Amino acid sequence: MEQHLPEFPNFIQLLAEHFRGTPVEVFLLTWENVIFSLIIVGIVSGIAYAAARKPAWVPGRLQAAVELFAGTLDEFVCGILGPKGRKYIPFIGTLFIYILFMNLFGLVPFMKSATASWSTTLGLALCVFVYVQYTALKELGFLGYMDHLMGQFRGGLALTIVIPLMVFVLHLISELIKPISLSLRLRSNIWGDDLLLAVLAGFGLKGIPLLFINTLLALLTSIVQAVVFALLSTIYFALVMKHEEEPYLQDK
């Protein structure tokens, strides 16, 4: 008999229960995580629109908060990537906000964190992977990127061929593993917190103190994991960006 791990009921599951045995139930349960992801898109878009709709020299609370966040993000990204990193701020900032809101959404009654599903986090990690590879080819050129993957050996070590090829294979494997590790780290932490809270809720009144404490910890974890995802994504860009002092080959 199939056993299901405990979890808080969300409104999609309750709605699907109302349509049990119909195609609507199948649709809702199949696209559950996508629906919650789209809800977050709507919320974030609404906040962004409200903050930018009527910009003022003396900003209101919402505009001031958004400007403070943008300035902090600019310092964060450019502190790692340098001035050239400013063009990546929209991508990294969107990732951070989107993941943060999805993480926190599961703490709202009858809602769910879409990041508790590996399909969601893997999709986000693959976006980072594709953009990083595109950046590497654009910054270094094809030959420069191959040189980067082979360790940029010069002199006798480069002539051995074997060592550069070994480094190339190891480096290639590490690049392919990055989206898996990035996605699993986020998914496992959020899923684990949701599971723990659901288990503690099953203890009834006796579990309220532990439930309260772990809810605060889950809140902290949600923020930390969004920061970690954005930080690692920024570092991945830094690893493939061209630095003037490094002798890359150029494919022109």
| Class from secondary-structure proportions | mainly alpha
What is the count of distinct domains? Answer: 1
Q: What's the total helix number?
A: 9
Number of strands: 0
User: Radius of gyration in whole Å, from Cα?
Assistant: 22 Å
Order of helices and strands: HHHHHHHHH
Task: Please report which band the strand proportion falls in: under 5%, 5-15%, 15-25%, 25-35%, 35-45% or over 45%.
Answer: under 5%
- The rounded distance between the terminal residues' Cα atoms is 61 Å
Average pLDDT taken over every residue: 86
Shape: globular
The largest sheet, given as strand count, sense and whether it forms a barrel, is:
none
- Uncertain spans, ≥5 residues at pLDDT below 50? 245-252
Share of residues in helices: over 70%
Detailed description of the structure:
With 252 residues, this protein is mostly helical. It has one domain (11-240). Helix content is 73%, strand content 0%. The protein contains 9 helices and no strands. The protein has helices at residues 11-18, 23-30, 32-53, 61-81, 89-105, 118-149, 156-159, 162-201, 208-240. Helix 6 packs parallel to helix 9 (208-240). 25% of the residues are buried. The model is unreliable at 245-252 (pLDDT under 50).
